[in-house]
UniProtKB/TrEMBL annotation:
A Pfam short name: Aminotran_5
Cofactor(s) it depends on: pyridoxal 5'-phosphate
Domain of life: Bacteria
Keywords: Aminotransferase, Pyridoxal phosphate, Pyruvate, Transferase
Record-stated family: Belongs to the class-V pyridoxal-phosphate-dependent aminotransferase family.
GO BP annotations, alphabetical order: glycine biosynthetic process, by transamination of glyoxylate
A single GO molecular function term of this UniProt record: L-serine-pyruvate transaminase activity
N6-(pyridoxal phosphate)lysine: modified positions: K193
UniProt binding sites for substrate: R339
The protein's name in its UniProt record: Serine-pyruvate aminotransferase/archaeal aspartate aminotransferase
Amino acid sequence: MKEKRTLMLPGPTPIPEHARQAGAQKIIGHREKECEDLLREVTEGLKYVFQTENDVLALTCSGTGGLEASIANTLSKGDKVLVLCTGAFGERYATIAERYGIDVERMNFPWGEAVDVTRVEKRLEEDTTDEIKAILMTHNETSTGVINHPQPLGELAEQYNCLLLVDAVSSLGGIELKTDEWGVDVVVTSSQKALMTPPGLCLVSVSPKALKAGEDSDLPKFYWSFKRAKDRYDRDTQTPSTPALSTLYVLREVLAEIREEGLENVFRRHKVVAKAIRQAVQALGLDVLVKDEKIASKTVTAIKLPTEIEFTILRQRLKDEHNVYVTGSKGKLKGDYFRIGHLGNVSRTDVLATISALELVLQKEGLEVELGTGLQAAQKVFLEEERR
Ligand SMILES: Cc1ncc(COP(=O)(O)O)c(C=O)c1O
């Protein structure tokens, strides 16, 4: 039974079986030609998913390392940045910048809502001395399940001559992000989310504008240096330090699979699964945090916990009785909401298994839930999609 785990977390996510097996390949020397081929293929595959011609660097760390790197490589001590905070991960980006001695101005938005672009525009208009060097934002705020659309912010960054740094850790490969077309200077994601690969790699795209800004950056960096990574890749298709080889093997397979499916279809699949989850839990009488469909995440959904049940009980029962894994909430939502992740290698069957398990657990906990109501709502979404 343990093998049949249904991982419905906003990362790490399940790995397609053939890709998972690729991770068991024999280790090669990271200065060998074979490794150069591996890195080249992965980099080309990533450019497709990032929709970019910019450099894409593979750093050996999780997403947070990439967020640090995005700051350390593009900014200088005392620079002013505007951090758009719509939840816990926006907060984290701000905190990292502060630790690097950046002058952080947080622009806070209510949790569960998206960035209000007019407020950002107004603030940039007021910045007549061009103090603000960068806008930092979270594409998909994993703590609330909200999508912040980078395109209008890319336009503002261009107009007001600042950089746009985007945390796309829980979105890239699941929600559309047109890096070049939308003018995003740095995009950070990590392997264990929509890229369906084990943890261990952080993938970062860097625009020429960001590289140029980096030339003047005085923040300390060695392991995180974009320049070292780019120079080494340009020179001999290698990484400066030993890369996470086994993770790269898996990522190569996954990227080939994504290309075969086609990005449009990948995004469509995420939309359908997200809609099915939303409709199902609402049919069961549960409240979703994000009411507005337009900004509702396609990779994670925050759901209000019914007062009758504590999160620890819900999680434990889903896990022990059904092998379904969900997670709690963070920051100010902790204890009030739980989250279902639905990104990467999550199938319709996984959705149905999760909703079915949820119905059973809620009913056993004494809630008035009619078995099958959530399932039917999800099934309807799938049927509608097939008739499209
Ligand atoms: C939006 C976002 N940013 C950053 C992180 C941190 O990523 P990691 O745990 O890979 O360091 C996460 C993790 O869930 C995330 O969802």
